Amino acid sequence: MGFWSKKELSILKEKYSTQGRNIPELLTSHTIRSVQMKASELKIGKSNFNKWTEEELNILKEKYPLHGSNIPVLLISRSPKSIGTKAKRLHLHYLKYKPWNEEDVEFFKKNVKIMPAKEIANRLKRKLDSVRNKASALRISSGGHIKSSYIKNVNIDFFKTWSEDMAYILGLWFADGNLEKDLKRFSICSIDIELLDKIKRAMKSEHPLGLNKKGGRTYRLAIGRKEMCKDILSLGGTPCKSLTAKFPKVPREFIHHFIRGNFDGDGSISLGYKGSPHISFLGTKEFLQGILDNIELDGKIKKNNSCRIHYLQFSGLKAQKVLKYMYSDSHIYLERKHKRYIKAMEWEPKMSKHWARAEDEILREKYPIIGYAVKELLKDRQENSIHYRAKILGLHLPPRIKRGNNPTLSFRIKKEEKERLKDICLISEKSIQQLIREKILDANCWTEKK
């Protein structure tokens, strides 16, 4: 509370009880709340700050039936609670659902094509949405003056004609869509709002996107059109499709677009070791069998033990073939999966080279003696490849006999090594040193021969 001078106190004592809410105009350095608290402290007569003026009452009587408590803009000094309390005392009611009488309907029909909607609402003392809804209920063409805020435009015939967009969106609906049992509304959910924007543009829809209450950060596009719901039903969709969906009849030229849409909804793509692609589809066994029949690849449909959903997986070259089939001649897709598709197509498998008969002969002759050092003779082969081929041929590495104090054993090893020096002479100096370190070759014996 600010400082009060003697002059201000005298004005407060003299004018407060008679002028009430107008006194702050005389006490410009103090707020209404400050004046009220000071008057209470000085025990000055009851304040009439909250007394309603005739102007305020006229505004309340005129606007409250139309706008309810939402008129604080016109009554700046009044709160919505204060407005509601005063209206109740004056027996005023908010006509939220004011019925239409015959005179209002006749006036509406006569002026709907020549008068703006706002002017009609003001003349009839109704809300703008009430006028728009009445135009929709009476099916009156307004000539562009009235546009309903609840009935949104959409291409109702979208699912009647096959196209890339239609096939893709239908496939996405089979993955992440829903159809109400009364066939009044269908919806598509996705965590990618950009994908739903593409769908809205393709369907020429004005329906807003909302957050799915059950799905956390999942966006939802819901369209209430009975005719479109019946079209989805005729194409093979069902209200409870999660466990009953079957692959629909799709024209041959649009099947890959349909599968891509389903893949963007319930499929997954990942890059494994050195960029090798792995993809999977989820769905019922009948639906996945339809995908398998159309992509013409061998695959096995497996069942998830934790639920009743089945899945189909492809890896490597098969995954690349499926991806190339799905994304051929496409312009509508999920961006993040399309980026992985591009990376997946860059992967090239490392083809294993066939072993020639001469290579097998070298391996049989040298591997039991010098082991991995045979790589010097088979320069195009890796150690893993040599070991795997030796295992197939039934070959074993030479025994690594540790030298001890037994002179007989030591002499016998030297003698065996002298007999095979001719074979070892084909190996490079570097490989010889490795054999000496591994104690397969005696260093003294090799130096003596050399």
Describe this structure in words.
The chain is α+β, with helices and mostly antiparallel strands and 450 residues long. It has 5 domains: 6-41; 54-89; 97-151, no CATH class; 157-351, Roll (Endonuclease I-creI), CATH 3.10.28.10; 357-449, no CATH class. Helices cover 47% and strands 8% of the residues. The chain has 20 helices and 8 strands. It has helices spanning 6-19, 32-41, 54-67, 80-89, 102-111, 117-124, 128-138, 164-176, 193-203, 226-234, 255-266, 285-295, 316-326, 335-345, 357-370, 383-393, 407-419, 421-424, 429-437, 443-449, and strands at residues 177-179, 186-190, 209-211, 219-223, 268-271, 277-283, 301-303, 310-315. Strand 1 (177-179) and strand 2 (186-190) form a beta hairpin.
Report the sheet with the most strands, covering strand number, pairing sense and barrel closure.
4 strands, antiparallel
CATH architecture descriptor of the largest domain: Roll
Total discrete domains: 5
Detail the poorly predicted runs: 401-415, 421-426, 446-450
CATH hierarchy class name of the largest domain: Alpha Beta
- For the termini, the CA-CA separation is 109 Å
The backbone outline, from C-alpha atoms, is elongated
The multimeric state of the shown protein is single chain
CATH superfamily of the largest domain: Homing endonucleases
Number of helical elements: 20
Report the C-alpha radius of gyration, rounded: 43 Å
CATH structural fold name of the largest domain: Endonuclease I-creI
- Classify the helix fraction into a percent range: 40-55%
Mean pLDDT: 77
Give the helix/strand class.
alpha+beta
Number of strands: 8
* SSE topology string: HHHHHHHHEEHEEHHEEHEEHHHHHHHH
Strand order of the largest sheet: 1-2-4-3
Into which percentage range does the β-strand content fall?
5-15%
